[in-house]
Backbone:
């Protein structure tokens, strides 16, 4: 068996083309979706991510604003900036690029954003709505993963899904989304005993650890769907995932690559949320 690759870049491109048409139609009705990103400090990875989001917005016709702040900004100043954006009727989506300096309480920042403009889907109100199956802004990476699975008409109902990783950004919410789709879900993490025994039973395996090639074929049931969320830089400077792609593709039925896998879908779901925010706020 050789797994079929789920190409996130290709899927993202198709979805963004449809979004471009959707934004044009909104513009005709005098609705101009706008995303404002606050970038603090000069972290190279954060700058790269924000640049990618800005480019994707421009291509889709979404107005993109980047507010750059020095790493020395106080918590009070940042919260005041967010409050201004909450009250700016031209801004539909607000995103504070993480991580932020340690002297600022990240949870306070997340909770300061108006839930109606929380296009990252991190606000406790939106998380609570997701948990209870209500319509809300879904976290971008988990939503992108679900879209990738659904794009191949992969059945989730009644299937056994295992998520390796329990972060608030990926692990926990992707498990909840799969549960909402009627999968049976188990979480594994650094304290899990006999992890291999658990993952070998999974019909759908989501890996979000942040360690290069931590999962090889010995962890994977034959015919499983494997979604690799990890992005790691090798000694040679290339990007690779948490999954040993060449090894695992010999046993899986579907697998996502790194790069060109989950990454492009994350930004695409951010665009989706921004468009939806504009529709809801302007109605």
Residues:
């Amino acid at each position: 068996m050789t797994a079929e690759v789920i190409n996130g870049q290709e899927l993202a491109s198709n979805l963004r083309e449809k979004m471009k048409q959707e934004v044009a139609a909104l513009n005709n009705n005098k609705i101009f979706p706008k995303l404002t990103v606050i970038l603090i400090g000069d972290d190279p990875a954060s700058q790269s991510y924000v640049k990618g989001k800005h480019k994707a917005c421009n291509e889709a016709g979404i107005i993109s604003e980047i507010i750059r702040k020095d790493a020395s900004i106080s918590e009070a100043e940042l919260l005041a900036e967010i409050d201004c954006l909450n009250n700016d009727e031209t801004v539909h989506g607000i995103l504070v690029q993480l991580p932020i300096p340690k002297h600022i309480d990240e949870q306070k920042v997340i909770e300061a954003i108006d839930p109606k403009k929380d296009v990252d889907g991190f606000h406790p109100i939106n998380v609570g709505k997701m948990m209870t199956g209500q319509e809300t802004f879904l976290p971008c990476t988990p939503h992108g993963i679900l879209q990738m699975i659904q794009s191949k008409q992969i059945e989730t109902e009644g299937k056994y899904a295992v998520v390796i990783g329990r972060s608030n950004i990926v692990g926990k919410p992707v498990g909840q989304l799969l549960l909402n789709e009627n999968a049976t879900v188990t979480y594994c993490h650094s304290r899990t005993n006999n992890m291999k025994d658990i993952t070998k039973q999974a019909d759908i395996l989501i890996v979000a650890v942040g360690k290069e090639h931590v999962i090889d074929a010995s962890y994977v049931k034959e015919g499983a769907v494997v979604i690799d969320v990890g992005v790691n830089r090798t000694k040679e400077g290339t990007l690779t995932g948490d999954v040993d792609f060449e090894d695992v593709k010999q046993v899986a039925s579907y697998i996502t690559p790194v790069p060109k896998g989950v990454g492009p879908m994350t930004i695409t779901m951010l665009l989706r949320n921004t468009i939806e925010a504009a529709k809801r706020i302007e109605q």
Remarks:
- The mean pLDDT is 96.
- The first strand starts at residue 4 and ends at 5.
- The two ends are 50 Å apart (CA to CA).
